[in-house]
Amino acid sequence: MRQGSIHLTRVAGIDLYLHWSWFVVAAIEIASRTGRYSSPVWNVLEYLALFGIVLLHEFGHALACRQVGGTADRIMLWPLGGVAYVNPPPRPGATLWSLAAGPLVNVALLPLFGGAVAMGSSMGWAQTFPDFYRFSWAVLWIDGGLFVFNILPIYPLDGGQILRSLLWFVLGRARSLAVATVLGFVGAAGFVVLALWWRSTWTLLIAAFMLMNCWSGFKQARAMLRNEKRPRREGFACPSCGEKPPLGEFWKCARCSQTFDTFATGAACPHCGAQFPNTMCGQCHKFHPMNEWLSSAYAHRGV
Question: What pLDDT does 1 receive?
C-alpha cells in the first residue's frame, strides 16, 4: 500500500502515511452526506474526526508494541481504516497487548465524547448550537462503531487477532493462526451475505479485504506448521526469541540469489563467497551476528 502514499509527518519515531485514495473516498463520502448540517464544513469536520480517531487507534497499537520490546515505525491510513506496521516479540502476551491497545484507545475516548454529548443535552445545544450537537453525537457514534467493528472476532480485525493471541497460549503460534483464519473465513462470508442484502459496495470491499487476509494468514500458518516439524541445528539460538534455526538451506544470498545454510558456512555464501555480518531469524525476523547466535545458545543452556 506504500505505492501512491503520501508521507505526512513523523511522530515519536513513527512515520505517518496517507494513501492517495483516501482523498477520493473522502470527497465522495462528504458529498453524499449533504443536508445533515447547515454547512458542508461540518461534514468535513466529521470525516476529519474519523481520521483522527483511526489515527489514535493505530498509535495505540504502535506504542503498545514498543512497550513490550517490539518495533513499530510506520502507520498507513487508507479508505478502509488504518494499518500500524508492528512487529511485537513472538510471545502471545506481547502480541495480545499490542493488539488490544488499539480498541482500548476507543474505549478511553468514549467517556470524553459521551461527556460532550451529555453536557450538550443539559445545556440545550440541540436548540442553540444544533450543528455542534449533531457533530458531537456523530463523533460518539463513530468511536463506538469503530470499537464494535474492530472487536468482532473475525480475522484480520483486532478481535480476530486478539482471539488468535489467546489461542496461542493453548495451541501454539501456528495452530492458533490456522484456527483464527478458518473462523475468519466464516465471518468474512457473513459480511458477503450482509453486503448483498444491504446492496453495500463498501461492505463487499471490507469482506474482500477480510477474505484476502484470511487466505494469506492461512498460508502463513501452514508454512509455520511445516517449519515447526523441521529438524533444528544444535549449538545456535536466536538472541531475541531463543528459537533454534532449522537445519537446511533456508537462507538466500543477496548477491547471487542462491540458497544455502548460513550456520553450516559461517554466514558466508558458498556459491559466490559473500559474507554476511548478520543472520535473520525465521521466527522473529530479527538480525544478529553469528557470534551472538552462538553465545545465545550457551545462555539458553544455562552455561
Answer: 54
Q: Supply the pTM of this predicted model.
A: 0.85
What is the tens place of the pLDDT at every residue in 202-235? 899 999 999 999 999 999 999 989 988 889 988 8
| Contact yes or no for 242/300 (Cβ under 8 A) | yes
Q: Which helix (H) or strand (E) holds 89?
A: none
Taking a C-beta distance cutoff of 8 angstroms, is the pair 98, 88 a contact? yes
Lowest pLDDT segment from 8-12, 25-29, 95-99: 25-29
Report residue 45 as a C-alpha cell: 469536520
Cell of 26: 473522502
Looking at the chain, the number of H-run helices and the number of E-run strands are 9, 8
Strand partners, 15: 10, 74
DSSP per-residue letters across 29-96 = HHHHTTTSSSSHHHHHHHHHHHHHHHHHHHHHHHHHHHHTT-EEEEEEEETTEEEEEEE--SSHHHHH
Window from 27-31, 165-169, 242-246 with minimum mean pLDDT: 27-31
Q: What is the CA radius of gyration of the chain?
A: 24
Contact 297, 236 (CB under 8 A): yes
The residue behind cell 512515520 is 15
Pairing of strands 71-78, 14-19: parallel
Per the CB < 8 A criterion, the answer to whether 68 and 17 are in contact is no
Q: Which amino acid is at 91?
A: R
The whole-angstrom separation of Cα 87 and Cα 66 is 9
Rounded to whole angstroms, the Cα distance separating 28 from 150 reads: 23
Task: Say how many Å lie between the first and final Cα of the chain, rounded.
Answer: 46
Of 205, 203, 147, nearest to 21 (Cα)?
A: 205
- 211: closest CA among 157, 166, 164, 162? 157
Cα-flanking dihedrals φ and ψ of residue 68, to 5°? -95, 10
